[in-house]
Amino acid sequence: TSQWPLLLKNFDKLNVMTAHYTPLPSGANPLKREISDYVRSGFINLDKPSNPSSHEVVAWIRRILRVEKTGHSGTLDPKVTGCLIVCIERATRLVKSQQSAGKEYVGIVRLHNAIESEAQLARAIETLTGALFQRPPLIAAVKRQLRVRTIYESKLVEYDPERRLGIFWVSCEAGTYIRTLCVHLGLLLGVGGQMQELRRVRSGILGEKDNMVTMHDVLDAQWQYDNNKDDSYLRRVILPLEKLLTSHKRLVMKDSAVNAICYGAKIMLPGVLRYEDGIELNQEIVVITTKGEAICLAIALMTTAVISTCDHGIVAKIKRVIMERDTYPRKWGLGPKASQKKMMIQKGLLDKHGKPNESTPDSWKKEYVDYRWVTGWKEAAAVPRAVSELERAPKRKRESESDSEEAVTPPSPATPPPEELSKKEKKKKKKEKKAKEAAESRGEQIEVTSETTSTKKKKKKKQKEVEESSE
After folding, report:
1. Cβ proximity of 45 and 206 under 8 Å
2. How confident is the model at residue 105 (pLDDT cuts 50, 70, 90)?
3. Directed axis angle between helix 418-470 and helix 377-392, to 10°?
4. What residues form DSSP beta bridges with 252?
5. Residue 214's closest CA among 35, 39, 64, 33?
6. Which of 198, 235, 311, 330 is the most exposed place for a label (fewest CB within 10 A)?
7. One Pfam annotation, family name (predicted)?
8. Which residues contact residue 31 at a Cβ distance below 8 angstroms, ignoring those fewer than 6 apart?
């Protein structure tokens, strides 16, 4: 399986959770999708030309391929060339993660004066690594705030002392301004410097040699498909979005769990078929189908060791769903409780929403807890207790009511469910509280007024005493 494509590579080396599942005919291998789906769930590793802006280039591709949505992996200035990942339709869901991925550049710096030797420039470039303060250049269309960006590695490739031009390579964090880096380089050498030319050679996991294509290639591939119905060129130019996720750890799900995840269900252990070694807590992983399609990006809540020792629990929480809903059939609501509930709705023992009615058996009311109407686990635990308390029919004494009305009758079948009763009780309690607070506030006001009057009397007495003494 080392030759298998994309996310299925080394599939046999994944740890097996269970081998039992029912394959479904839905979905398809990413490389063998229908051409319309293939284009809509793909991306292009584009070699950006020199003068148009990134947004213009992306808009042209949208027009050429006749699609609705496109996005890119991080803006390049108009004069900058190189690697620009253009995501199409469904793949635009991965744009955010691509924009924050690391980048590599090759640039040319022009120094304003001569320097002693090439070694001096090489040393200066190597010192500009680690976390650096940067303020965006004047040309940038962003707010010019001071920010910290990390340079992972940088080195001098070549230097021409006659023309005072240096070629350098740099691997850096997303959002680093190479133009600012060149100015800092000039300041460090004490001669001044500026960026002359720049090319991005890697964006995320894709570099110049990873199927990079030009705008003309895209145009020709689309023309070939439109006129000759030959989609082989389009398939070569556009790559499936799964290629962007090959560096992530994988989690293989059963076909029956796929659509539930697309609708936002938690990724639980019973749905897992295989999992990769080295999954860490809070690591970003990719959840895939048995055919190698990406379902979603998720944050791991269990390590590989925990997954291997447990048989239930939440494995990961969804970060971004990639697959379209209903690509696979719905397979939830087929468990024992859900099946029993459906039968009872058909027989009329529950209403059409699955709530109890007049003919619902008492055993069902006692045993079944509907978690849709329960907000937290504490409330869920309190539901059965509330029912039993109602059955005891406790007595309440109220000053306004007569002795004959003191006893509360047990709930008849037509009475509302315990949840509604508890809501009414809460409302009554709130009203009583408000009345008490109002009464207390009135009392406080009376006390305050009495205090003020007493202080006034004391002041008058003092004034009289002072006047008498002066006389």
Report:
1. yes
2. very high
3. 100
4. 274, 288
5. 64
6. 311
7. TruB_N
8. 5, 6, 235, 240
